[in-house]
Write a structure and sequence with these properties.
heterodimer, A: alpha/beta, Rossmann fold, 2 domains, 6-stranded mixed β-sheet, 4-stranded antiparallel β-sheet, about 15% strand, B: alpha/beta, 7-stranded antiparallel β-sheet, globular, binds guanosine-5'-triphosphate, binds magnesium ion
Amino acid sequence: MKNLTHLDRLEAESLHIIREVAAECENPVMLYSVGKDSAVMLHLAMKAFYPSRPPFPLMHVDTTWKFREMIEFRDRKAKELGFDLLVHVNEDGVRDGVGPFSHGSAVHTDVMKTLALKQALDKYKFDAAFGGARRDEEKSRAKERIFSFRSAEHRWDPKRQRPEPWNVYNTRINQGESVRVFPLSNWTELDIWQYIRRENIEIVPLYFAAPRPVVNWNGVDIMVDDDRMPEELRSTAVTKSVRFRTLGCYPLTGAVESTAATLEDIIQEMLLTTTSERQGRVIDADQSGSMEKKKQEGYF
Amino acid sequence: MRLNDDLIESDIAAYLEKHEHKSLLRFITCGSVDDGKSTLIGRLLYDAKMIFEDQLASLESDSKKVGTQGENIDFALLVDGLTAEREQGITIDVAYRFFATEKRKFIVADTPGHEQYTRNMATGASTADVAILMVDARKGILTQTRRHSFITSLLGIRKVVLAINKMDLINYSQQAYDDIVDDFYAFADELATDLEIQPIPMSALEGVNITSKSNETDWYDGPSLMDYLETVPVGDRRLNTPFRMPVQWVNRPNLDFRGFSGQIAAGTIQPGDRVKSMPSGKQSTVQRIVTATGDLEQAIAGQSVTITLDDEIDCSRGDVLVSAEDPSEVSDQFQARLLWMSETPLLPGRRYLLKMGAKTVTATVNAPKYGIDVNTLNDVPAKTLELNQIGVTTLSLDQAIPYDPYDVNREMGGFILIDRMTNDTVGLGLVDFALRRASNIHWQAMDVDRSALAEQKGQKPAVLWFTGLSGSGKSTIANALQKLLFAQGKHTFTLDGDNVRHGLNRDLGFTDADRVENIRRVANVARLMSDAGLITLVSFISPFRSERQMARNLMADGEFIEVYVDTPLSVAEDRDVKGLYKKARAGEIKNFTGIDSPYEPPRAPELRIDTVNNSPEEAAEVILGFMREKGLLNGG
Ligand SMILES: Nc1nc2c(ncn2[C@@H]2O[C@H](COP(=O)(O)OP(=O)(O)OP(=O)(O)O)[C@@H](O)[C@H]2O)c(=O)[nH]1
Ligand SMILES: [Mg+2]
């Protein structure tokens, strides 16, 4: 008898979680951020229900500042797999011209991401939303349950988390409340890459190194993805061989200099690096405990 | 992550191959508050080089700001990630951390030592193979140390590291260490016969005996903690038990395919194997084991699969596919060990939701047979279970479910209890055995059934449930209504709180638990009366929503009419017909509804009666009108 490998176990656990939501929740949605974790989550959703299709739509909260390659990838992938794709944009933010260059990372993220997500969940009345977060990403995530409850105001109360023994999940909620479900809770960054490699999962090419135009902004290299970047900044662009460890809004995502062009290269580089994956995100650096605060306020 | 493995640089593919086949160990740290659990995990992560430079930088600055170690690194801050935890210097909720060495992968849950957060500790322990039980060498075995070792053994952990920590503070004294070890062995003898205990003296702070043996304890000849964790045998004992798979989801993409999706809880399965669907007991043969990457020849415990069968047998979510040769039993009454996890104590007699595997049913939890004193492991009398208390009790379910004892299979015998009003998870339970097998009980089917009985009386049965404060006018209105119904030739009966308490419920007082039992009995009597074809008027304060809901659930659809006699407390107290409010205010009566015991008003009663602006006769007419409108006064 063949023993299950670590990845087999992680996969089985995730399929169980995804099915449990489909069976018990009335109106679930899968939040799709187009990144590598989302790619894995999507792949797992396809597997969980095969030969049926996953009985829920995908939703992307589009801040309008994502890399263009991400948007192309998103639309093509959803179509290929036959998913309903809902794209939500905070139109108030668009009208007020909110963006990272003009308003800074904090305001931009708050309005275009946190607020936008709340709007979207309220609009469609989703009672459960899958997210691709992992416990190894950040220290307050390490504390979060797989089924994580949110009040009607979308707040997370870390002191009132439900006990979650074994794999028995209490999915019941009161009117207006919702639950965020994290099927990748127990995966690490290395697990994600290994699984992508094993299952041959397609990811956005930005993860692989290529010559790209970058500028230095607030101490990190960011890519010039469109001409909304202020002219004086854009004019300082140089071409470097870079890739990205996480993907988000292009002005808020730091590039790393690299020549890693294959999955093996990427994994090797990751195993030898001395900094964490989140370091490239401009949003965390503000203060310790900032992630917990954001989550309490409704950030995913 | 900086693993010291040359393969990473020389042959990454080979490294990944090796890494993927490393075994996985899940463990927890537990023990009393401040014994050094989080510090140990932080230390392990640090020594295993799992801390990135940016994380180390913020650890150093955090340590200076909020750490407990002055200018030095406070390793606990690597795991105590919540703001409240860092402020108070304690752990509140479980942190899950992941690391790997050359030999193994680890998932560690750092659990809180504080008694208040025992439920979070249990969450972490429920999935662990090994427990590291921390003891502060200066303090020895404390109540909380015992509680945690009891809970870990209850949940089935059989491998325990007795980590005697802070040895640096007692000069690495062998004598002190030996005393604590002896102390623990004496306690552990009572705990379980098959515990494997590995004592290790250590200093989490100084890194002594953590990743390697240290000179400070040259008298100690056992392994370092990491040696132990890397080599302790782990095996999935579920593999060698009979096949079980709770059905999570029925997979029906089209008319030609009907599969049963679930995660295998025990055993192995192959196409051609005979299986039964429980609780129905219908048999069939496994046709295919379907996955997105092709059919499998065999599937084993832990895998999530989709199974198709040769026959179209009835099987839905919550049912369990089991080996036909070695099926599970089915029952609706269990004895179980319960760990209570809610600030609101267990209310014996109340109905809770019970979720086990993919099945959710309603369960009445009876009064505990006894509680367990975690210090002495003795049975102690218990009328209820409070937060973090452990006891043994029986449960009656509203339907029979398949199960195995928890000690045979965690997934088939471990359940949670959910409060039906708040939806909170309030209890964790472990099935010990069934009190009777469901196959032996038969509901006595009657030839003269309830509809015949009602028809004979020319009426439709109904239960009018009057709820409201003491002195609100429930009995007066019920009385007036009964007169009107009687005049119409209806067969009625009134159950009145005061009267029933003189007979049937003479043994019950007014504590919350007794009130629940009071209502449970009355609701069942009302149910029998409506089976007999009567229109029953129930006049009880019945202050709790969940008990009224329980009564409602007992009756047939449309037969339960909740009449909320909505008299404000001030009005009822002014009237004080029986002089009870005065006594309650004077402290002569305890647990009086509205004074020192709560009343939960109905959220959606069929009728709400305003007694300030209506006379009892007018109120009775309103109710009669409602019954007419609903067709309840027509012939049977
Ligand atoms: N001298 C000494 N101090 C230690 C050692 N281990 C931990 N401490 C200190 O003991 C205090 C409590 O440590 P924690 O790791 O937070 O304890 P804990 O068991 O996780 O506490 P809770 O999770 O709140 O139950 C801190 O100030 C640590 O620095 C040790 O081996 N030696
Ligand atoms: Mg701690």
